[in-house]
Each structure stands twice: as structure tokens, then as C-alpha cells.
Amino acid sequence: MDSIISDSYAVHFKEKAFQALNSHLAQKKYSIVFILVDENTHELCLPNFMAEISGEYQFEIIEIESGEVNKNIETCIGVWEALSELGADRKSVMINLGGGVLTDMGGFIASTFKRGIDFINVPTTLLSMVDASVGGKTGIDLGSLKNQIGVINQPVMVLVVPDFLDTLDNRQVRSGFAEMLKHGLIQNTAYWEALKDAESLEDMKNHILTSIQIKNKVVLQDPTEQHIRKILNYGHTLGHAIESYFLENESKEMLLHGEAIAIGMILEAYLSNKLLGLTNESLEDIKTTFLNRYDKVEFLNDDIDNILKLMKYDKKNSHGKVNFVLLKSIGEPEFDVEIPVDLFSEAFAYYKV
Would the CA dihedral through 207, 210, 216, 219 be positive or negative? Predict the structure, then answer.
């Protein structure tokens, strides 16, 4: 796979990833190379990663606990303190080896420590490879509210090594695949159709480059999400609210990001049908495709009421209005769409059928 080069960072794949990393480390001569891991990537990924590094450097490993529940300021404080105790300075670098939670949080920690040190993202999940580690969004949650605190700051580089995906369970793979399906829905009908035929992990690996190219193309047009980049949030306005609700509610089983976003995409496809003319055929295609891959989740009326209340915290909102990304057709999104309140209950009723 060819590397994706932009003005501010590069995405390198497979063997080229470690070639680029080794060349960069030799050139920059960082004072200390910090590697941020969680308990899973420490055991399953770090040994293979370290085996590919050539040259002698001072390495320090910092481990955090995995999971969205730990994507908070307390974890950041712990890492900032560790960096200080281990002698980090502005000539240090942080390599974030993990999934989307870790790359989001690691990027934020690096961007704010001593007003910013270099960081490199090495995504180890499908979700982080095609979405979270690319585009410069860093941040943490505020309580159960997703990504409320953060900055947009690009990594030095992103290294995509698909072999790391072999360490994942099927549920984690499916979670990441939801974001790939989103890329088809917002940009490319042919890609949407191709992804519907992807069954195995190897099939999905073959589409990683296309998904990153789609996201990168959008990000380059609008790095700070003032206009066109908003289309990457299709399914996320309701999806993030669902994810937050299931995270904070102890009586509910927590949903992975992609599982919640898959529901959001079905709900927002219904809204698209009612407001923007998305055809009935496309609506049914979207619903069937997601429900064939993701278990249907039960929503009680109280659940729906509380989910809708959480939407007021969505980052795309402006002047007190909840803004949605909807589809005029598959591959043709429209952003900043306001929704009549009565349509939300209809959308959930459609999902339940």
C-alpha cells in the first residue's frame, strides 16, 4: 500500500510503517521515546512493535486501563504525572499504541503536556485504523458525555499495521467495520456495495486503505470541522447519545462505539427518508445491512427520552440547535439539518420493527 501524505502528517502502511518510524526516530533524536499502552496492547502488541524498531533509544512504557470508562481527565492526570516523573521534556515523543480510546486520549495528553510534544499514532483496532487515529481529533469524555474536551492537533505520523487486528475478538472488529460502512454511505455508493460483501477479517483488511483515503480527503478540505468535515458524523448525533446513555446506565450493557453508531445510522437514515427524500429502497437497504451484522437493541420509552436529552451536548450543535448529518441518497450527505421533534419517536419505532 502506498503511504498517504498530507501537509501536516503521513499515514504509512505495513512494512513501510516501520521503515518510516525508524527513519523518523533516527532523524529526530528524541530525548525519550514514551509508548502509551493499555493492558491489552502491552501484552499482545508491544513485543512485536518493539521488535521492529532499529536503533538505540531511551524507551519508557506507560500503561493505562483500557475502555471508554477510563477516557477521562483522571487518567490524563496520571499520565501527565508519569511523564513528569520520568523526565519528559519538549524534545520527547509519545507513541500511542492502541485503539481509538487510547489514540484519542494519548494525542490529547501529548498535545497539552508542556504545551505540546510530538506524538505518533499506531492504531491496533479496526475502528482506530479507519477513523479515530486519522484526522487530528484528540480528546476525552466529560463524565459519560463523549469527546467534550479536546483539541484538533495532527500526529507526526500514523502507522497502520493490519496484523495487529489478529489480536481482536469479533465484536471489536464489527465495531470498527461500522465506521467503514459509514464511509460508503457518505461518499461512495460503489464502496458501500463492496463492503456489504465483506465477511471475513481479511476482506475488511483489504478495504482499510479506501476508508482512510475517504476520511483523509474530507479532513484535508476542512481540518477544523467548519463545514464539509461534519459529514463524517453521519449516525453520530443519535449514536453518541445512545453510547453515552448505555455507558452511564448501570442497568444497561455497555455498547461499543460502532454498535451505537450502527443504530444511529439506521435512525438517521429514517430521518433522511422523511426529510431529504432518501428512497424507501435505500432506507431498507441500510437497515437490513446493519441488522444483519449488529444485534438489535431494546429501547424502552424512558430510554428514548433520556437519549434525546443527551443530544443537546453534541459537538455539532450551534446556537442551541441540534444539527444532523442526513443522506439525500447513498453517497450524497447534507449537514446542519434540523429535525422536527416528532420524528425522533417515529425513527425509534422504525428501528424496533
Answer: negative
